[in-house]
Write a sequence for this structure.
């Protein structure tokens, strides 16, 4: 059996998919793409991902089976310098909960809240 990373995929649940897509595209400077839900029960927009590369792919998901909220799982997006994305959060409609801070030899992190009420992090080595 081969070793795997603990996370293979993530869903960030949202109430307003269009609003959430606009927020993450503005903050992360990327384009999300529609993907199909095999069950046909959810609308999903995928973050850019190379499933053969290190890390996990994921999507913003609008579903009747789960809802957004603060205090649960926190997804950390990778960045060259998390201060750049942090600087875009308020203008995109979110909140910076904890500005860029050191996590020692593991680099830097900022904690933010999206337009849907989800907490997320951005991490970088610079």
């Amino acid at each position: 059996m081969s070793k795997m990373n603990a996370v293979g995929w993530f869903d960030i649940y949202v109430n307003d998919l269009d609003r959430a897509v606009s927020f993450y595209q503005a903050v992360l400077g990327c384009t999300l793409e529609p993907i199909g839900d095999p069950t046909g029960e959810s609308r999903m927009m995928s973050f850019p991902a190379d499933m053969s590369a290190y890390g996990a792919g994921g999507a913003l998901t609008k579903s009747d089976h789960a809802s957004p909220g603060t205090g649960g799982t926190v997804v950390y997006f990778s960045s060259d310098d998390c201060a750049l994305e942090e600087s875009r959060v308020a203008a995109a409609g979110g909140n910076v909960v904890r500005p860029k801070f050191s996590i020692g030899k593991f680099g830097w992190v900022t904690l933010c809240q999206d337009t849907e009420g989800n907490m997320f992090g951005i991490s970088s080595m610079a």
Observations:
- The chain has two helices and eight strands.
- The chain has a mean pLDDT of 92.
- Strands lie at 9-13, 33-35, 43-46, 57-62, 75-78, 95-102, 108-113, 119-124.
- The first strand starts at residue 9 and ends at 13.
